[in-house]
Amino acid sequence: MDNDRIERKENYKFINFNTMSEIRNLKPESLWRNFDELTQVPRPSGYLEKVQKFLLEFAERVGVEAFMDEAGNVIMRKPATSGMENRKTAILQAHMDMVPQKDPKVEHNFETDPIQTWIDGEWVKAKGTTLGADDGIGVAAIMAVMEDKGNLKHGPLEALITTDEETHMVGANGLKPGVLNGEILLNLDTEDEGQLIIGSAGGVDITATLDYKEVETDKEDIAMAVTIKGLKGGHSGLEIGLGRGNANKMLVRIVREAISDDDARLASWHGGNMRNAIPFEATAVLTMPKENKEDFIALVEDYKEDFIREFKGVEDNIEVLVNDVELPAMQVPQEIQDNLVDAIYAAHNGVWRYIPSMPSIVETSSNLAIVNIEGGKAECLILARSSSESVMAELGTSLSSCFSMAGMKVEFSGEYGGWDPNPDSELIKEMRRIYNELFGNEPTVEVVHAGLECSVILSKYPGLDICSFGPTLRSPHTANERCLWATVPKFWDLLVKTLEEIPAK
Question: pLDDT of 85-96, one tens digit each?
């Protein structure tokens, strides 16, 4: 290997491994160096060929066994260090894909461009895009363990780096029984240092669609575009209970009143771009009689004031913009328009219920993530989550009923179950002890309102003892994703010590 760079022009822009990104000065060196290298490899969900190749080449370079399974997961195996051969095999697990979100003002192609990292005080961030610490930090930790040449002590190790976790948990669902040999699984995809996660919510994608025949616009009308932007967005599970604005739900209030009061008609609607991210921007184009323009502008201004007041302390940069646009040739028929708008207005968004025995933890929620209406096609995409199968079914039926009344076809897909906590986990007991010995305080043991692959993997390997943990991340699935770098050494130390103390078979 050339010491200065590896060029892979046939696949993606060159990776300059010796370019001194400032994050390489952080500790632990091996983890941050591997994370920095990972940021140079495009890996948005659905486009993972480059990172799969990168991981397989990495394994060959450091001398560990590796292969890719039918689902696109990369599996690595490393023998025990001397004297540790009798320990249970531990599986280190993380996902290779990242959510591709960016600031609208930033030019970035996630399929070709590297992530540009920087340090902002106590946080590692990316310049205008998601950082990919979800779950690049977990992958980098695995790489650091796999490349180690004798400094760490551990029993037999396996690594499971899954594909497309952020979209239907494709890799975990495609994992075949019998591929893994481990008895303990350490999932490295948790976003609060000091937490040991022992359970997570299940989820299901709900998609409502409708084909309609457009009608011509009145040539005497004008067209106005109204846009909600500047919202924080965020993770549709972990941050769904923070009361942040949903651009689609805010926009529908304006659109419905404009239809009622200003004789407006809906021509198009585009809001949100990822099912697992709270939508931070949405735009609708409305037609209306020209004499109603000023009233409509005043209506939008009134709602802007309402939104700023309603979300004070939660959303600090709300923008509500209205602009003249060219009159489109076609628009949505009035009856269909009214039904669609009513459905979007009525569809539940946000927390549905908290866990009765743990009232601070969200049990069930839905995220009205994406709305697209234009050109004779309408779609609403929702991700619903719950740690209760029965309440998930209740929420799903409620949403299905809402969209069905608008004449929409409703489909459920990508369903995955929740991860039920194991209160008798020996692994959790040991990790609590280790954490206390290392840091002098007790970790919290939690259930999270997010989708972790643990539940899917456990369904195929029911004997696994599992814990999920990681450093502190904030605002994953947004361009403001950041990692609290001071928590990474603690995450690493806990991982290293846990591997050292994996029990004998």
Answer: 999 999 999 999
Mark whether 40 and 180 lie in a shared domain: yes
Q: Where a domain ends, among 391, 416, 441?
A: 416
Tokens of 338: 């009214």
Set 37, 97, 134, 453: catalytic member? 97
Cα–Cα distance between 438 and 213 in angstroms, integer? Answer: 65
Residue 130 domain flag: yes
Q: How far is CA 459 from the centre of its chain?
A: 22
Q: Which domain holds residue 371?
A: 204-416
Catalytic entry in 37, 158, 164, 165: 165
One domain, residues 403 and 277: yes
Q: What mean pLDDT is predicted for residues 402-407?
A: 98
Does the annotation mark 165 as catalytic? yes
Tens-place pLDDT, residues 248-286: 999 999 999 999 999 999 999 999 999 999 999 999 999
pLDDT tens digits for range 94-103:
999 999 999 8
Q: Is 468 domain-assigned?
A: yes
255 lies in the same domain as 182: no
Q: Is 97 considered catalytic here?
A: yes
Mean pLDDT of 113-130: 96
In a domain, 255, yes or no: yes
Separation CA 472–CA 36 (nearest Å): 18
pTM: 0.85
Specify whether the CB–CB gap between 366 and 349 falls below 8 A: yes
CA atoms within 13 A on the CB side of 125: 15
Non-local (6+) Cβ contacts of 172 within 8 A are 162, 165, 416, 453, 456, 457
